[in-house]
Amino acid sequence: GAELPDYFVRTLLTIIHAILPPKPKAADKDSKAENTGDGKKSKFKALAIADDKDRAKELEEEIEMEMRDRKDKDRDRDGDRDKRDRDRDRDRDRGRDRSRHRDRYKEEEEEEDRRDYGIRGRNRNRTRDNEDDRDYRNRGRNRDRDNVERDEDGGRRSNGKYRDNEPELYKVYKGRVSRVMDSGCFVQLNELRGKEGLVHVSQMASRRIPNAKDVVKRDQEVYVKVISISGQKLSLSMRDVDQNTGRDLLPLKNSSDDDAFRTNPSGGKEGPVTRTGLSGIRILEDEDAAPSRRPLKRMSSPERWEAKQLVASGVLRLDEHPMYDEDGDGVLYQEEGAEEELEIEMNEDEPAFLQGQTRYSVDMSPVKIFKNPEGSLSRAAALQSALIKERREVREQQQRTMLDSIPKDLNRPWEDPMPETGERHLAQELRGVGLSAYDMPEWKKDAYGKALTFGQRSKLSIQEQRQSLPIYKLKKELIQAVHDNQVLVVIGETGSGKTTQVTQYLAEAGYTTRGKIGCTQPRRVAAMSVAKRVAEEFGCRLGEEVGYAIRFEDCTGPDTVIKYMTDGMLLREILIDENLSQYSVIMLDEAHERTIHTDVLFGLLKQLVKRRPDLRLIVTSATLDAEKFSGYFFNCNIFTIPGRTFPVEILYTKQPESDYLDAALITVLQIHLTEPEGDILLFLTGQEEIDFACQSLYERMKGLGKNVPELIILPVYSALPSEMQSRIFDPAPPGKRKVVVATNIAEASLTIDGIFYVVDPGFAKQNVYNPKQGLDSLIITPISQASAKQRAGRAGRTGPGKCYRLYTESAYRNEMSPTTIPEIQRINLGTITLQMKAMGINDLLSFDFMDPPPPQALISAMEQLYSLGALDEEGLLTKLGRKMAEFPLDPPLSKMLLASVDLGCSDEILTIIAMIQTGNIFYRPREKQAQADQKRAKFFQPEGDHLTLLAVYEAWKAKNFSGPWCFENFVQSRSLRRAQDVRKQLLSIMDKYKLDVVSAGKNFTKIRKAITAGFFFHASRKDPQEGYRTLVENQPVYIHPSSALFQRQPDWVIYHELVMTTKEYMREVTVVDPKWLVELAPRFFKVADPTKMSKRKRQERIEPLYDRYHEPNSWRLSKRRA
């Protein structure tokens, strides 16, 4: 037959599929059943484990018992030290008394011998024998007790003579110091031939010793105790042994309770380990103590000949090179930069409770946040992302050009020996640049150059301002509604007074006699500012009757009756007290924002009001989704506060705008030049976009000349200092107009009077979690129809206004979802899952969420918690997981902190975590960037950015927390003070649970291991072609140019987070050893099978060297055959 074209066959097949009748509906029923609760429970069994609050209480009781035991042990240890000191003094005195008694006794014996030899002789011998036997037993009892250890079969045996000349654990030996280093010394054991062990500097004395050479010297005789045996390596201790008598000072060290071999709960079958810590990781003290050693390389023939000549001349001493083989390969030396080749790959073994549910078994696709991925809004968002990337690249290129133009050598007196006239500069002039005041862009100077004012100007008194609010007229009705309804939904526009007045009305009505009135806020800034305002209206100091609580900051006291807090803080209080017995009223404010903590609080408080009939729950919202809230909370009543709203004219574009940012700037200028007086509110997506828009507006206004009325440009975003944010509330002077360029924070959280015009491009940035990659990403997305209504309403508060929507009416109806996708359906759920597990909530599918999260996201969160050791093989919370839940940190940071307690570096890790929490520490003034970079480079540490942050804090601490020091070094003093506050709060939590705060000194390996223990899933390996590849998804990533490791490019690193700018950049990068990944996270990584080709090598492509004379693929066999 004739051959048909391919395109004809494909077209025909498509037509046939379209004509075919639909499949039977049985399959549809199965899919529907699978999506229902029972179907999901059968598919995701890990999310349907029965709730067990008794187990949660048992874990709490175990932790409390551990705390008490640790406190008792500390007290007993202190008592033992005091007792040892007293015993040592008593033994010394007893020895002197015994020698005097022996001399006196001899004289009496000689006198008695002359009288009656026979009887006196027998008595004398019996007395001496008894005394010698008693003295021998007294001397030997401690030694025998010290030398008893647990045998491999669990029985106890006494350490007698050594078999096979092998050392025994917890035995005291006499030795001689053979080598001394800064970090410790090697001791040759006298009783064991050829046996040598390491005494780390931390094991030399109970006090901190900076350098081992200050304590010991070569050939010194010392007593040591074997505390660890790992193959041929011995780890010794001097501080546990009395160096005068050789007596063991800590005989309890060999008790079965403290040092019995245990398996690693964070990993698989690891077998016996030296010590298992609080965090469940293996702690090999000898490896931590010893300095890292590089692979050994054999000498070449010329090097071997040269070494023999040096030995013959006496220059090279053989006793200093124990690995020298004169007849063989000479000295084995350490090659700089050489590292052992180790192939690491993912451990794809699924735990029992996650069998068939993880990403290795189920396709986990990211959450869909675009209603119409092919619509005009999606295309505009993609274009704007590309334009933002392009602007960043241009800016980075300009910065590199400027850095290249600055001289590198400022030690010469003249910069250019042959300069042109008027261009001669002294090097000292260039050296002094950067020490002047912080330089802002021109538009910021113009906006903030005048005296700053705080708050909204008003001629009314505080009482008159309260009475002018719309809610004041409904005060009695509101109090009565709260009294009659246990749960009440309150709807009111922003500025109606519900946030500041409801709590005060209830306090005046007597609700504080039964407990506190708690009010949650979705943002920490809102909780602080509202509490400050309410305290002022209440007539008290902030922190007394009215206070606030946010993460790492608690401004409340015993007299506090009205408490504002972030929703996350109330969730932590439920973790401690599930009945919230301290509160009589809970008010969930701004509930329409649907943060992840608010959604969990909905379910918990819905259960709580059933248990506590006396508790009153108020849910407030500024949008029109009151019916949904009411239906969720038992169809409760709705209380509506009418707002001061005026009609708003909505204007749409006729055609979709491809570049919404440029269209927004044109619209603002058009309003300013053609519309009557009134301020403008422009909504953009983030700080970078806002700064660019302000700069462009300023330059365009400057280009229009002085005849145009002045336009005051004011940005608003969360990173802006509060004193600058307050300028937006000031009314514009007569004849001028202000434009406020804000993120979606101005939708409902801020009330700005005087706004008559709103420009709405229709976009916002949302944090979206991809469970397949395990990464969060901040992307530009279209807003919802509810948000669009909120934005339009901002123009009708002062008078009739206009809203310019820079999208078509069709896009509003067809491409925008009715409401915003809740956070719980689009972000990482690790922290929430851990907290719910700590509350005893295991059946996450049955939990009463208002909008349930995707099961894939919950599975991904549980997989992460299992890898961290917070969950066991059955999916239940471990003791480690319960302790992790106590810290107000993400699970990786909590694990990192608890691991540091075991590794002996918790003091440094506390500082590093506090510095990470504060955000950016350094600042780079626009015209002082080179000088700022030079100052920053002084703090760089070769180990990475985490230790650079530690160096900055320690330098600031050494300067007595000086403000001028921050100014000189381009460091933000506010960020450092914030880090100091965070560190204090974390320290108080550690003190509460009796966790040791120990410094590692200069042993940075311990610090890097602790970081690896928490962030092992952020490991990356250097790519031979360019940049790095993540081990989890093989994703190409790069070290950020501001990193301390940007110029070094080590082979293996761990990063804190990924930031998408022009590339996927790693922030806060630290060098790691690949062996640590398997050692500290065996549930997540494993060493690749050397007999098989690893997954990474299978994905590598062979790229031949460039050959300009032949085609790129000419080397292939298929080409050669052709």
TrEMBL record:
Reactions performed catalytically: ATP + H2O = ADP + phosphate + H(+)
Keyword hit for Transferase: no
Domain S1 motif as annotated: residue spans: 170-239
Superkingdom assignment: Eukaryota
UniProt-listed Enzyme Commission number(s): 3.6.4.13
Chain intervals for the UniProt region annotation (Disordered): 20-164, 247-277
InterPro entries: DEAD-box_helicase_OB_fold, DEAD/DEAH_box_helicase_dom, DHX8/Prp22_DEXHc, DNA/RNA_helicase_DEAH_CS, HA2_WH, Helicase-assoc_dom, Helicase_ATP-bd, Helicase_C-like
Name of the protein in its database record: RNA helicase
